[in-house]
Amino acid sequence: MRILKWILGIVVVLALVFVAGGYLLPREVTVARSIEIDAPPGDVFPHVNSLKAGQEWSPWLERDPEVEVTFTGPDEGVGAGMAWSSEQPDVGIGSQEIVLSEPDRRVETALDFGQMGTAKAAFLLEEAGAGTRVTWDLVADMGAGPMGRWMGLMMDGWVGADYEQGLSNLKTLVEG
Prior knowledge:
5 helices; 36% helix
C-alpha cells in the first residue's frame, strides 16, 4: 500500500509539473524561414500573391495528387481564397485567404485548419542585391491550455522543413 501511495504521489507531482510548465510556455508560436532568389521582387510577387499560382510550388499539395482544391474570390490579391480537403493527414483540410497584399513587398494570409485551429502566414519580400530575400512565416495561437502550448514546442519541427521545401520550390520556379 505504501508503494502505491508513493507512485500516486509521483504521478500527481508530474501532472502538476506538466500543467504548470505548460502555462509558462508561450501561447503564440512563430515559425519562419527565408531564402534568397535571384530575381527582383516584381518577379517573385505574382507567385505569392495568388493562391492558384501557389499550387506550382506548394510543399503540401504535391503530397496528395487526389487533394480537392477549390478557389473563391479574385485570382490574386486581397480576397483570393482557397480551400482544400485531403485524406492524407499531413495535408488535411483547411482554407486560406489573402487578407493583405502590398505589391512587391508583402502578402498576408489567414489560415483555418478547422478543429486544428487558425493561424496567420505572411510572405515578406526584401531587395537583396540584384535578387530578393523571401521570408515565409506562420504565427499560430496555441490556445490557453497547457496541452496546446506543449504542442507549440513542436511547431517548428512540423512546419519548418515544409517551409524550406516550399521556398526551394519557389526559387526553382522563379529562377527557372
